[in-house]
Amino acid sequence: MPNKKAVRFSPASIGVSPFLNSVVLYAAVWYMSHSLFNQLLIMLYLEQGSDMREREHWKNRSIFIMAAIGSAIGLGNMWRFPYIAAQNGGGAFLVPYFVALITAGIPLMIIEYGLGIRTQGSANIALGAIKKPLRFIGWFAILSAFTINIYYCMVLGWTWNFLFDMGDLHQWAATAASSKKHFFNDILHISGGPWEFRKIHWQLFSGLFITWLVIWAIIKSGLSGIGKILLFTVPFPVILVLILLVRGLTLDGASTGLNYYLSPNWPQLSNSKVWLAAYGQVFFSLSVGFGTMITYSSFMPRDTELPNSAAITSFSNCCFSFLAGLAIFSVLGYFAVASNTTMQEITQGGPGLAFVVYPAALAKLPIWIKFFGLLFFITLLLLGIDSAFSLLETVSAALSDKFDFTRAKSSTIVAVISFIMGLPFATSAGLYWLDIIDHFVMSYAITFVAIIQCIAVGWILGAKTFTTEVNKNAEIKIGPIFTFMIKFLTPGILTYTMITSLIEEIKTPYEGYPLNSILAIGIGTLSLIALFSLILSCVNTKNDEEREAEVNKILMEAG
User: Are 257 and 353 in contact (CB under 8 A)?
Assistant: First the structure.
């Protein structure tokens, strides 16, 4: 994310008190949420007496793997990996990156695949089958995915706005300064801080609405419809990135960018922060800890192969990240040479790369500026949509499992509530809220879930029991090394990472935000996730009892 001190522009005169705007906004959100909650209670009551619905399944293993790859590959592959690699040793970063992939990424992926397949249920069911109190962790993961998707869809809303502005790309992105002004002033209408909401901006509202409409329509169509969408949305971004790469490599200065991206700085390997950055990148880019992979794998038969499927998904995600880095930095090298600046001056991660620097670089292309601009933002949309509907499916499937809702009903409930709760991100304070919530959920909530999953499988269920189940249908057998990683190495590294981050948090508040915003927005979000996770895990429904009986039967038959 951009430095907050650099983006806090002076508030313009708005004629109405920001406080009054905030009150009106949240009164409207509360009223609509309250009405939806009442409708939800009515639907719960009406459906309690229905028979448990038969669970859908993917058409085949290939579609399942494509769905998992689509979920794992997202916006972070385009704007985070290249920056992290360049800042942490360049080509040398690939060493700790692949070590992290093998020792943490793939084991966590195998755990989530295994949990979903062994119980044929969402994260709360899968973890609850190990020990009932672990249902709380399952819901904590699911509601974290729900929270992430609320602001993730707003980022896709930004992308729609940029697509609609492609006709004037050569003007608003003529320089890095004008591109920055366009993003922060014209798109985000950014205010001076997280409590200055001002109003909901119709462009952001429209982008958010279009995004939710699209992903709702995809999920509502069922697994067969999702499978057809995946045949387009997974391979097409790869083709588009290859086109951008070919164009980038033909530009003067491409070597400057690629040298900055790939030149190995071997002494950096002795820096512990580089290794932590590698583990963080692998962990967060694979969509583990959200309950998504548990949900997706639960739609596969119990005899599905696991280790090789997990390796294919993980390596595909990492290869795309590397490829995206080549495409990004070849164009940034051209931009650095054309604007007579250094790579250090123009390189940044997060939205600043995708929505500020890269458009400014595209605007300097000698020909086909709008064409390559469209390619880039269409790529972002396709990458984001796959991840967004996988997060929606995670929550939707959990509601269907607990309350026996139809797919259409559960996906509609989640989409409508998420859209309403996303309205604060369509205000002038939206970027601040997004930044704070993203930091706390990704740094603490998801890491916490992954640590508990390792403990649950490695120590409570038993690594030997889990390994035996996985190896029944495995093309690549797992053994003592896997056991060592999930019992000691992976949870140890993640715990160290989380504690280190927490210590830094105590010393210096994240990005210099006011303490009240950190407590209310960051800690408050985590507290709400925990509270509702506790409620959902403690309140039993008729469907919970039927699912539990079904899972016990499945596990007994499996021996």
Answer: no
Residue 80 CA to residue 280 CA, distance in Å, equals 11
Contact call for residues 115 and 126 (beta carbons, < 8 A): yes
Distance CA 72, CA 237 (A): 13
pLDDT one-digit tens code per residue, 330-341: 999 999 998 888
Task: For 200, list phi and psi in degrees, rounded to 5.
Answer: -85, 130
What mean pLDDT do residues 233-248 have?
Answer: 93
| Residues whose CB falls within 8 Å of the CB of residue 304, separated by 6 or more in sequence, listed in order | 61, 64, 113, 117, 297, 473
The distance from CA 151 to its chain's CA centroid, rounded to whole angstroms, is 10
d(CA 291, CA 170): 42
Pair 309, 293: CB distance under 8 Å: no
What's the mean pLDDT in 368-386?
Answer: 93
- Is residue 306 a contact partner of residue 474, using CB atoms and an 8 Å limit? yes
Mean pLDDT estimate for the chain: 86
43's tokens: 């639907």
Is the four-CA dihedral 426, 429, 434, 435 of positive or negative sign? positive
Residues 6+ apart with CB under 8 A from 371: none
Nearest-angstrom CA–CA distance, 469 and 307: 12
The model's pTM is 0.88
- Domains parsed from the chain with CATH numbers: 56-558 (1.20.1740.10)
**Burial bucket for residue 322 (CB in 10 Å: 0-12, 13-18, 19+):** middle
Cα distance between the two ends of the chain: 49
> From the centroid of its chain, how far is CA 491?
21
What is the Cβ-side half-sphere exposure of residue 139, based on CA atoms within 13 angstroms?
21
pLDDT above 50 for 15 = no
Structure-block tokens of residue 48 = 């309690």
**Residue 135, Cβ neighbours under 10 Å: how many?**
25
Tokens of 507: 């010393």
Per residue in 497-511, pLDDT (tens digit) is 888 888 888 888 888
Both tokens assigned to 102: 């093998």
How far, in Å, CA of 22 to CA of 30, rounded?
12
- CB half-sphere exposure, 176, CA atoms < 13 A: 16
